[in-house]
Design a protein that fits this description.
Shape: elongated
Radius of gyration: 23 Å
Order of helices and strands: EEEEEEHEEEHEEEHEEEEE
Distance between the termini: 27 Å
Number of domains: 2
Strand order of the largest sheet: 1-2-5-4-9-3
Number of helices: 3
Largest sheet: 6 strands, mixed
Strand content: 25-35%
Helix content: under 10%
Oligomer: single chain
Number of strands: 17
Structural class: mainly beta
Length: 248
């Protein structure tokens, strides 16, 4: 991973370390930047100088000294405003007010609403990692980056998590999730060991996955079970026989 060292005027004791976006794992959940955009396009400014349209990509660990970049889960286009009353009463704003911080010490870089679940509130003088708006305009839009895969576990986080394509707002826990062959193989291996799948068994029939009940418990001996074939994209849609639990 590339690193870039930057400083801010009048902060001689702070060394700010910019890094490229981490790879997505089960524990590191950072949405990629648009194609072509990387850490070399990032600069550092104080929060109160962030302009509308600048793309916020991270903050920094506590100083003074060496301060490493802490990536935002997803980069966002800033829409700065003074900190004040929050009509959605989001957690960030409520927490700031609860601790009786003076509002003029903060700035809101984006406000809750639409797909934004919480305001982004920071100290006015905090260093912020941004891609300036005029630079960001040279790249595809932020929403062109692939969305983060969703994570699911089998029944109350007993086994998993398993990566899958994001699901719709009307999705239910007994519906299918769409996974790769590798993930389907891991589910097939784990399922019989879980409480929800203790009476099920899995076997591969070439490229198809057969999930069936224990033959000793089958009320319909002629029923072959649930045969799952890969779709046109080579993905497997698995579910319906136990509960999936989304990982928030």
């Amino acid at each position: 991973m590339s690193e870039y060292i930057l400083t801010l005027p009048h902060s001689p004791d702070d060394t700010l370390v910019i890094t490229d976006r981490p790879e997505v794992t089960a524990t590191e959940r950072f949405r990629a930047l648009p194609e072509g955009m990387n850490g070399s396009h990032v600069t550092v400014v104080r929060a109160h100088t962030v302009r509308s349209g600048d793309v916020v990509v991270g903050y920094f660990s506590e100083g003074p000294g060496l301060r490493r970049m802490m990536h935002t889960e997803a980069a966002f286009a800033a829409a700065p405003s003074d900190f004040g009353y929050c009509p959605l009463e989001c957690y960030e704003c409520t927490d700031t007010v609860y601790h009786a911080y003076s509002s003029d010490r903060f700035i809101r870089l984006i406000s809750a609403g639409g797909n934004v679940k919480s305001c982004d509130v920071v100290f006015r003088n905090e260093p912020v990692a941004i891609v300036p708006g005029d630079v960001a305009a040279q790249f595809p839009p932020l929403d062109s980056a692939p969305p983060l895969p969703a994570l699911f576990t089998i029944v109350e986080q007993e086994w998993g998590p398993y990566e899958a394509l994001p699901v719709s707002s009307t999705w239910g826990p007994f519906q299918n999730i769409s996974v790769t062959r590798a993930t389907a193989e891991q589910i097939a291996s784990d399922l019989p060991n879980t409480y929800g799948g203790r009476y099920l068994r899995c076997e591969w029939l070439h490229d198809a996955l057969l999930i069936s009940s224990d033959p000793r418990l089958r009320t319909d001996p002629g029923r072959p079970g649930h045969l799952i074939r890969p779709d046109a994209d080579g993905r497997y849609r698995i579910g319906g026989l136990w509960e999936w639990w989304p990982v928030e």
